[in-house]
Amino acid sequence: MLQVTDLHAYYGKSHILQGVNLEVGEGEIVSLLGRNGVGRSTTCKAIMGEVAPHGSIQFRDEEIAGRKSFEIAKAGIGYVPENRDIFPGLTTRQNLMLGLKPGQKDGDGRWCMEDMFEMFPNLRNRADVDASVMSGGEKQMLTICRALMGDPDFIMIDEPTEGLAPKIVEQVGDLLLQIAERGVSILLVEQKLTITLRVTNRVYVMGHGHMVFEGSPQALRENDDIRQEWLEV
To answer: Which string of b and e fits 176-215 if b means at least 16 CB within 10 Å?
Structure first.
């Protein structure tokens, strides 16, 4: 579904991505691991067109590198950034409606608002409350659900469990599995090995702007050298 080949990206003169290669197949959950600052979030931004990409990014066999972000979203790619952007002054329900594509109505795609409320009852309880007053965990659920409302075929989710209580982390993991069950592919940027190893089909480890490991969760469990050098504090 997604194939990234020899991807480079820069912030000014800083060479952040230095030849990234990765693939995400149909219905796969693929995790991108690594310490802060190695380029994981920049990889997502380059795929989404928020950072100028140098290299090849193919989605469903079509080159999307160089397209504008809204064009990439229309092609079927969703993106949940790590900063949990919600629209303050709008209710939870209104935030969810903003996830719909132009001309799309609630229920047209794989997901509808009622699905979101069933998965996360807290969102139903706060459906008509200003979204800015919600907890961090509730905002994270809202940003993921808003992206799903646009019915993407592929979604990138950046650090969804950062700062969340263990119970909410478990809920997020369950949601990721539900998303994949409905045929949506996922690129998950994470640091928590517990959730990553539970839900992921394949794992990439990034270091210094390129991939240093690719394999199954079990292969990562068994590779002490990679974990110690590139993941553990």
So the answer is: beebbeeebbbbbbbebbebbbebbbbbbbbbebbbebee
Gyration radius of the chain over CA positions: 17
**3-state SS, residue 62:** strand
| The predicted structure's pLDDT at residue 120 | 84
Asked if 143 contacts 78 with a C-beta cutoff of 8 angstroms, the reply is: no
Identity of residue 4: V
User: How would DSSP label each residue in 102-120?
Assistant: TT--TTSSS--HHHHHHH-
The CA distances from residue 174 to 62, 97, 115, 165, 195, in Å, are 31, 23, 14, 15, 10
What span, in angstroms and rounded, lies between the C-alpha atoms of 209 and 212? 9
> Tokens 């693939």 belong to which residue?
23
Helix (H) or strand (E) segment spanning residue 58: strand 54-59
Q: What is the pTM of this model?
A: 0.93
Q: Return the CATH fold of 2-230.
A: Rossmann fold (3.40.50)
121 band by pLDDT with thresholds 50, 70 and 90: confident
Domain extents in the chain: 2-230
Whether the per-residue pLDDT at 233 is higher than 80: the answer is no
Answer yes or no: is pLDDT of 38 > 80: yes
Q: Would you state the pLDDT for residue 167?
A: 83
Q: What is the pLDDT of residues 86-109, one digit of tens each?
A: 899 999 999 999 999 888 898 888
- Measure the CA–CA gap between 141 and 143, rounded to whole angstroms: 6
